[in-house]
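Look over this today:
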Amino acid sequence: MKGLDQKTVMITGANQGIGWATAERFEAEGSTLCLVDRDISDVTRERFGDKHHLLAADLATSAGMQAALELLRDKNCDVLINNAGITRDATITKMTRADWDKVIAVNLTAVFELCQGAAVMMKERGSGVILNASSVVAHNGNFGQTNYAATKAGVIAMTQTLARELGRANVRVNAVAPGFIETPMTEAIPEKVLDKIRQKPPLARMGHAHEIAAAYAFLASDEASYITGTTLNVDGGLVLG
């Protein structure tokens, strides 16, 4: 993708799944990576440690966030990809305050804090790209995911607001909303359930992590230079109903 070589890109939630695939894609494009995750596995260190910057940090803690912000500033990142996210599913009558608070902390508050840090730096520089992970559940909700859906809808609203605030500083802000994606998190789902999930979108399959990574790469590239404040659904047409 045009303009990604020689860029420094921070990716949160980079240890597996979509984050890992995104790291591989941006490395292939010639970018230098700052990879952040609560846990950095030996496999990740072996794959990316020699050429890139790795940080084990829990973004729901003040210490972890401070470390991530210091890395963001120290490496003068051109692109921030807020990919990290968690679930704590339960129906509304069974969801605990702890379930709510943890998901809000990781999926929304941490995104805000990193966006804020990036905004200050990117405005001073006069350029930059911020990409946030939303989800198709932000549009229509999802059974048992009051907390998760609320954060992902909040991410869209935050993305649109920041696009308005930062556009004149030549900073673009967009979101990606994945549908059902094959990741290590889905491996534990029974095959019968997976078959039903695959039939929901018009394309009649689950997506792959590299397809989300491709969306991130496009939106970060110069080829998307006139796109800001948008949410790109990468869902096989799932939101069509």
Summary: DSSP finds eight helices and nine strands in the chain. The chain has a mean pLDDT of 96. The beta strands are 8-12, 32-37, 53-56, 79-82, 128-133, 171-178, 181-182, 207-208, 231-234.
